[in-house]
Structures
1.
Amino acid sequence: MKTLVTGGAGFIGSHLVDGLLTKGHEVVAIDNFVSGRPENLKARASDPRLQLIQADIRDVSAMEGCFEGVDWVFHLAALADIVPSIQKPMDYYSTNVTGTLNVLEAARAAGVKRFVYVASSSSYGIPDKVPTPETAEIRCEYPYALTKYLGELAVLHWHKVYHLPAVALKFFNIYGPRSRTSGTYGAVFGVFLAQKTNGKPYTVVGDGTQTRDFTYVTDAVSALILAAESEISGEVFNVGSGGSYSINHLVRLLGGDVAYVPKRPGEPDATYADISKIRRMLNWHPSVSFEEGVRRMLECSEDWKAAPVWEPDSVKAATREWFEYLGKAS
């Protein structure tokens, strides 16, 4: 197949490019390099089946011609992070909503056979039920979650109205090599590994008993490819690990000292995907255990030396607006 990956130089996108090339597909990777990095694809740079294009999904003219002859589209390009979405909601809307509409229309015009959208489990907010099924109430707590959910709705609407063969996968806490280290107080693995590599204590939020459905990136990639290979359309699937693990357990596996920081408003005590639907309909199963995933992350811990090193005071400064806005709302 000729495939197109938006956000192809990003964390998950670059792993997806690897997976598609390994399966023999041709790949067009689009990225504006705001958070994606060309070096994420350096191991594939000489592969003639890979075409890397610098373009912004908000710029329709920049994407012209990129979709020609494309069979599958994987739409991963998005702005992430909570605090920046609170600070600059219009930027998040223009990328995550309008940008998604641009990609949908380009895919529709090209007559693509499959459209796979990466949605976010953050749209569930603080759920009543854990494990959380796809039927759970949507409770977006901040603009990032809202804009990702609006993108999801657009994808399902384009399927309904224009018969675009599309599915959405709601990802839960994806981690692995190449994960982002930039952004305002980023993902926990990047934060902790940078702290470990630089001999600093882990900044644990609250008491550390909160749990997360940490899902290894190669399992996420296998779900994406299975979704493209299937003939199922108009569905939303959770993608998780099949478990939920406490931050304290992660700290024990990593080893090291801890510095506690205040619990943040708008964050659930647990994220845990009910993955029975994707197991049943796509026959997808996660294969990397949490302990194995952590071991793999520790093997590449040197990669985190240049990452930002957070300490309690810098965390407090970086999340001030988080508390100011979401704290008043809760």
2.
Amino acid sequence: MSIEQPINSVEFLIVGGGLIGLLTARILKDAGADVAVVEKGKIGKESSWAGGGIISPLYPWRYPDAVTRLALWGQERYPKFCEQLAAETGVDPEWRQSGLLMPNLPVDEQRSALEWAKQFGYPIESIDSHKLKMLEPHLKEQPSALWMESVGQIRNPRLVQALKRSLVESGVPLIEGFNVDEIIVANGRVQGVEAGGVRVSAKRVIVCSGAWSANVVRGLGVELPISPVKGQMLLFKATPGFLKRITLLEGHYLIPRRDGRILVGSTLENAGFNKEITASAKDELLGAVAELAPELTQFEIERQWSGLRPGSSNAGIPLVGSYGPEGLFVNSGHFRNGVVLGYASARLLADLVLGREPIMDPAPYSAG
């Protein structure tokens, strides 16, 4: 089925063709639902493409338990799901267990992390400088670190590509360049959406528009507590094996890919919808490299880019559930954790719209 195929009506219409929207569409389609996706730009080219793909919140103990529950559900199931996608589509999302190092945390924070790990049965180890050097010889020497060996990563652009291909091959319409002007409501119930004079009827509309989600529903006179937070990243073209572990220090991270490329991220900028890359952000990220792995600067910087995360005022808990008029649902507000939380939030949303037993208590994620 062509990605440009038009649609007139559908049971479930997903607004937003990023990772969250595609995961939601995939789970609904697997349940036998009639589903389509509309995207204002190109499928998967916003924050889903721009992010790092760490399958863990950066500092998981800093988040509410509701975030942890979503993260643990996805962490357990992503390896098999990525294997399945690769077999179906020929596109490997490159899930791999890199582990996550967090050097030089204050003693009280290490204690909080170990208490959190004990509560949830999650393996975290406190290591000294000697073991840190054994795990990552090219890291700058640090007195201690926390080591989360089970943390994995996904190459998120490839995950999106695999999802896109799987949906097209299963007959799900993916409509690009469809910027929703209005969500149509009559008698208190959603009827569909309209864009540029083109109307698509739908029994249920699911907003998965990331940083743009609040804009999509604002015409209904309701407000979502979601706004864009820009993040800029650098990509080094290093040699395979130069770094093997994800490493995190004070919110900045290094992510080594299988082919040797290393992502350096990420800034946190309240700049509205401005995605311009800046020299000051590059300097900030290079400063993080100097603190983590100064030898990395011997390699070429292949590119710099930015993306807009869907920040929210909900303590990092995404909004998943019904919102506003009957038939309108939201799955958004994942901030820095779209990949690690997205699989579980998509499953939870699908459970709610299909009337199934939900995978977890939906109350903490209520959007309405």
3.
Amino acid sequence: MSAVGTTRATPAAAGFSRGTQWWTLFVFTCGGGVVLIEPSPYEFAFFLALFVFMVSGLRLGAGGLVMIVLLMLYNIGGLFSLIPFLDDGDAVRFIGVSFYLAVTAAFFAALVQEDAQWRMHALTWGLVSGATIASIAGILGYFDIAGLGAIFTLHDRASGTFKDPNVLGTFVILPLVLLAQAVLLSGRLRLRYLVPMAIIVFGGVFLSFSRGAWGHMILSMALMTLLTFMFVAGPQQRLRITVLAITGIIGALVALAVALSIEELRSMFELRAAVVQHYDVGATGRFGRIGRAIPELLDRPNGYGPMQFRRDWFEDPHNVYLNAFAAYGWLGGLSYLLLIGATIFVGWRLIATPSDMQAFAIAVWSVLFVQILQGMTIDTDHWRHFYLLLGLTWGLFDRCARRPHHRRSPASQPASTA
């Protein structure tokens, strides 16, 4: 069942009512779309959600424990690297945020162990609402409606309720993929799906003018469609998915042509659509820094230290794998590589295993896998939605492994969405 659809009621767990849990999770994940100020509403809502669900009952599986151990080793490496910079407030805050985000991943891994369909329904609509709000802010800012350009744009690109257009553009991908999957599986072109999809694509992805977000959206949507076609859809749904996918591609191309008929949009698109920008190349460019920094890191067991790479190279690494060694040292870097390698193994195994949450797992993994690849060109280790995806992947893997009675035949029809 796609998490966008209607879920079947199950008995309430001990503690807070299921309605309270639903709205708490909705507000929490919706708050993830508003991070223009820090601490953001997401942080306050997280601790509320943690309290509500701990009282109601949380549990972790073996896979979740593996994830936590690797995340802790990663952050312990960061603590060792921090020691020479304890007087640097930014560095201390950086490691503090890393520990906090690891806790959020553990929370999401535990969240799906019980009442998963109900909880993921709340999570999905919270994400959709947050992404829609952020995307509307991006539209208002980009076109400077009511003088909001100074608040919701950065470098002539829509940043919405985020501080960085690149983060806006990637945050909205998961809710967009979940909505698209609901359309593909149900075949219902409902306004509750299509309107937020249109707003998110235009205001959240296109107007961010982020090459990473554009590629992320295209690859995640393509991967979700392919995996849904292969592992979830029945014969009739496969025909419908094929027709809707082709129709969607044609519609997207027409919409792009209409958008590019506006001179302002076309000029910015042509500027940003180049595969390589001027700041990517050369000895001091993004790729040049990577090649020159790696030999130095071989002689630095503790790396450069948290937030210190920019002091030697004038900018951050813009590569999460390089940053793992630069900010967290050898221990942190190796732990991060192990975490990503294990996650890739778990993710591909998860989506190929029939279960009542298989469609949702495919949507989550399609976005996370592309984001793992995207880490080669940008620092993703402090993206809140990365830890959301990470925790959900490991949690769903645990749930599937220990609940074989929830599995279904691959050929069976998934539950219809509402």
4.
Amino acid sequence: MFNEAGKVAAVRHHWTFDEGYSTVTVQGLDANGDGRTSEEELKQLAETNVSALGESGYFTVLKANGVKQAMDVPRNAGMSFENGRLTLRFEVLLKSPAAGKLLGLEVYDPTFFVDFQTAAAADAVRLDGAPAGCSLTVSRPKPVPTEANKSLSESFFQNLSASSSFGASFASRTVVACP
């Protein structure tokens, strides 16, 4: 998300969770018993989830001209439950809006505990308020062959930490080029 000055000011996220996690998470949240879990019934859960993501930097790495940008407090946390799947929405503000001819965005868990995947749709990543002439390219990681996964032991994953870079190997990358 760009501000009026043409600088990146925030990253808007829409994370849709798998059906298993979604089903377990909404259990007991239909407070009015109408058979559907509304956004209002999910509001507190959304705020709690987004607040907890601060420890991990919101799994968001944004670089402007190669310099990692510091993230500030999120806003507009919300959640919806449709077609058996939860979607968490929020915006992460940058501490200082960033200018740059080349921007890079990655969303990933360094420990690979959470598997983030950018949707396959052509408009899965969009520029909001970008200066004229800016363009974006999304590159998605290649699938890892099943036999490659067998060589990684449980201890390997137990030793990963927030400072690890293993999860970055599986991150989609968005590159924004502006004139």
